[in-house]
Request: fold
Amino acid sequence: MRLLIENVSKRYNDKQALDNIFIELREGVYGLIGPNGSGKTTLMRILADVLKPTKGRVLVNGQDKTDMDEKYRELLGYLPQEMGLYKNFTAFEFLLYISALKGIEKKKAVWKAQELLELVSLKDDAKMQCGKFSGGMKRRLGIAQALLNDPKILILDEPTVGLDPEEKIKFKNTIADISFDKIILYSTHTISDIEMIAKEVILLNKGKLLIADTGENLLAGMDGRVWKSKVSEKEYANLNSINDNGLITNISRKKDYMEIRIVSDKKPFENCETTEPSYEDMYIHYFKTKGGVR
Amino acid sequence: MELLKFEIKKLLYGKTAMAAIAIMLCLIILTGVGEVAGYYYTNGTPKTVYEEFVPYIGVTANGYTLKQIRNKYNINLTTNNFSDGLHLRYLETFINMELYRYGKSSINPWYDEKAENPYSLSGILVLLNALEQNGKENTYEYRMRQMQYEMMVSAGGPKVYYTWFWSTQRKAFRDSALLFFIFILLILSPIFTQEYSSGMDSIILSSKNGRRRIVTAKILAGVVFSVIAIILLNVIQLIIYIIFGSASGWNPPLNSLYSFGLAPYKFSIAQYYIVQLLFQVAAGLVLAIVIALISSRLKSSMYTFFIGAIFIIYPPILEGMFKIKGPIYDLSIFHAIFTDNVFVKFKAFNFFGYPVLYPYVLIPFLFIVGILAACLIYKGFLRRDAC
Reply:
């Protein structure tokens, strides 16, 4: 399957949320990364068919999604960033309702709902009313509903928010497991979420596509740009004045010294050596977020 | 079908909905029982009332009968309130007999209408003669009066029948109907808005059936609820009257009911009961679709409720505050709910020079409104962006 996002733009009054995005997606997991307001959610909502682009189109195997209409939505599984549940529905009823919305035949919906409740560890809470669910349970139920129709295009907007570490690992494994025949677009602020599972990483900033490439290529592009150094407290205090020389991405305080990690195009100061770049280094390099600058 | 079941469940499962249903049920029962109890208190049992009026049943109007009743019960027509006693209801039927034939009542100063009263046989004939003399036989006015005259003759003049049950039933319905339709409005207002407030709209709109079948399911859920509720209202009231009152008097003509003395429709009371039920069902059906339209365009159930309420009760507001009448007043859900307004007197609309009776215009008009509202919901939902 080929999903082509062709010159898609979205404008809200005077704000350009997306600007001429062109990306081609095929089966596999795509990590969508960018700071707040970069247009990730807008792009996902356009792909989920809940928002119309101001310009451009989305094609599935060459066919416009607008023309495909129901057939396009039949391919979709969507977990929005924020979703509500019906307080009076039980988890099981909720999944049956979503199954009906997705046009799944009732018999199949029943066993699929049971299977997914087990997958997201909600089997024992199947008869509990959604109004009594914790944030993490709601998120897990949200994940289950997105997978109900075995979607070919799965759009996950920050799916791991509220999940505990064990659930996160389980979820990532599930995504990796099912991704062989699906296009999975996975947006997150937690870079480690996609580090192991993303086939490609798409970086968005201020509505524009910065770069879309495999993780390996992106990290290769960072070679020689990530430095580490052991500094004393005093030297660390002086780093303020060497801000121009790079962005500190990590500080780890040891017994007698501090180990710092810097992203910089050139050697920031003496006593630095290059090190393996990580996804977080890459994020800081591209977005130069305030969190990375000291 | 699955979606429909879930949509009905969503409408009825909330605490507000459950509380509203419980309160409404109590109100319907209390209104019905209260009305019956009130009549027992004023008039005695149905049996005693029946026995008292047996001598007058079936008689046609004449001054003697009117006088008889007036003297027997010592009725002062200038001071007595007509709702005080059942005998006054019968007296009013006698007055209607006079109005039907002569356009005015020779007895009652409240009915000081003229011989040209356009709802009396004499008045219609006066108008028809005037139109003939002016050579206006091919006009709408003439055709309309001709139709009215024929219908009035066919319906026949009002007579006294034992219609105790139905007079009470009409009053109980009037007392509870408006509140009942406001209750329907309360239940149906969140039909679409709940998806925005619950944050479910994104998931719904991104699903296969989330733009067409969901709309069908929601509209059907609203219609099913509304229609079943209306039928239940009528059934509960009927059961109350059968249990506590008397269910006799199904066959007398409609114009034997005191307020329908000048009605031109040749219905029996039972036929009218079914007709009014069908009108209310039609009103409920269209109301459900219109509320769904308002709900689909707004994000707040409260705004939907208030705009829906205005949609129901605008005719009396127009009439009371602005003295506006005409098609905008007549062709409303309000009048389909309170069907007495439609059938109580002759009314027709001019269609290319030919008269079409009010009920035949009202129902198709409401259905057109319903169809347009449904189309607008579908159209809006196909283009809709999630919040």
Q: What stands out?
A: Chain A has eleven helices and 14 strands. The longest helix of chain A spans residues 106-119. Residues 221-287 of chain A form one domain.
